[in-house]
Specification:
The protein has 286 residues and is an alpha/beta fold. Helices cover 30% and strands 31% of the residues. A hairpin with a 7-residue loop joins strand 11 and strand 12. The longest helix has 14 residues. It binds spermidine. The site of spermidine has 13 residues, from strand 5 and helix 2. Spermidine binds next to strand 5 and helix 2.
C-alpha cells in the first residue's frame, strides 16, 4: 500500500495547527497516543495525544531556550533533574556542559523514549549513550517526593500541556517539592506554555512560581509548530532577581554549539513579556 501524505492537525480552541506528511508510526502506549509523521517542511514530527511535541526542524527553539539560560548562569550544575523530556533533546543540551556530571531523566512513558530513540535519533543524539545520563521511567511527582532536600542544582520541567496525567506537574505542591530538593542557589526551569493560546495557564505558572520562590523570570520565543507559535520558559530561584547571569567565557563555547540560543537572543527574549500578561502578573494598570 502506498504511504501517501496526510494532514495531521492539533486542535486547540477552535483553531488547528497542521503538518502534512507521511505516517511513520502510530502507537497507543499505557498513557497516550504516540504518532510520528515525516513532514514535508519540518522533518519528522512527534505528536502525543493530539498535541505537537517536537519536530526536527524546530526542536532547537524549544530545547535550547529551556536549558541554556539556567546552565550558563550557575556556578554549580553537576547534578540535574529533567522531568519529562523523553525525546532526549533537553538532556542533549545539558550534556554540552562538561561541568554536568549527572542527569536523572524521569519520563513517565517508556514508549516515548523507545520511539524517540528509534525514529527521532537526531534529537537525543549522543545523549542516549552518555554515561552521565540516567533514565528512570517513573511519575515525575512521585520521583520528586522521594528525593532528599537540597539534592539538585537545576530542575528542568519538560512536560506536555496540562492534561489528566500531567496536571500535577503544574501544581503548587509539585513546585514546593522542587524547591525543597533544589540547592539554595539552584534554578527551576520550566516550559510555561503560550501567553496567547494558553494564557490562563501561563499566568498561573508564573504566579505560582513567584509565590513559592523568591523570584522568577520569563522568556519568550517561537516554537513554530505549537499553538499560536509563541512560547515561554520560566526560571525560578531563591536568589536575587539577577540570578540569570551568564558566565561569558563558557557562553562563547556553548553559543558555537547552538542553532538558536545566544546571549543577545536571550537578553531580548527576557524583555518580551506582553503588557497584557505583565498587568495580570502584577495586577497593576500600565
Ligand atoms: N504544546 C506542547 C508543549 C510541549 C512542551 N514539551 C515538549 C517536549 C519537547 N521535549
Amino acid at each position: 500500500m502506498i504511504n501517501s501524505s496526510i494532514w495531521l492537525d492539533e486542535y486547540h480552541k477552535n483553531s488547528r495547527f497542521g503538518l502534512k506528511g507521511k505516517l511513520v508510526i502510530k502507537k497507543i502506549s499505557n498513557f497516550q497516543e504516540i504518532i510520528i509523521i515525516e513532514t514535508e517542511e519540518y522533518g519528522k514530527a512527534l505528536m502525543l495525544d493530539g498535541c505537537w511535541m517536537t519536530s526536527l526542524k524546530d526542536e532547537k527553539y524549544y530545547h535550547e531556550c529551556l536549558v541554556h539560560p539556567a546552565l550558563s548562569s550557575l556556578k554549580k550544575i553537576s547534578n540535574i533533574l529533567v522531568i519529562g523530556g523523553g525525546d532526549g533533546g533537553t538532556a542533549r543540551e545539558c550534556l554540552k556542559y562538561p561541568r554536568v556530571s549527572h542527569i536523572d531523566l524521569v519520563e513517565i512513558d517508556q514508549e516515548v523514549i523507545n520511539i524517540s530513540k528509534k525514529y527521532l535519533p537526531e534529537i537525543g543524539g549522543e545523549a542516549w549513550k552518555d554515561e552521565r545520563l540516567s533514565i528512570h521511567v517513573n511519575d515525575g511527582f512521585e520521583w520528586v517526593k522521594k528525593i532528599k532536600d537540597n539534592n539538585y542544582d537545576v530542575i528542568f520541567i519538560d512536560c506536555s500541556d496540562p492534561s489528566e496525567f500531567s496536571n500535577l506537574l503544574f501544581s503548587d505542591a509539585f513546585y514546593e517539592e522542587c524547591k525543597r530538593i533544589l540547592t539554595s542557589e539552584g534554578i527551576l526551569a520550566t516550559q510555561s506554555e503560550s501567553p496567547e493560546s494558553f494564557k490562563d495557564t501561563h499566568i498561573r505558572i508564573i504566579k505560582s512560581l513567584n509565590n513559592i520562590f523568591k523570584t522568577s523570570k520569563t522568556m519568550y520565543s517561537f516554537v513554530p509548530i505549537y499553538p499560536s507559535g509563541i512560547w515561554s520558559w520560566t526560571f525560578a530561584s531563591n536568589q536575587n532577581s539577577d540570578f540569570i547571569k551568564p558566565n561569558f567565557t563558557e557562553v562563547k563555547e556553548i553559543e558555537k554549539k547552538c542553532d538558536i540560543w545566544n546571549l543577545n537572543f536571550q537578553n531580548g527574549a527576557f524583555k518580551m513579556m506582553p503588557n497584557k500578561i505583565l498587568r495580570e502578573i502584577n495586577s497593576i494598570k500600565i
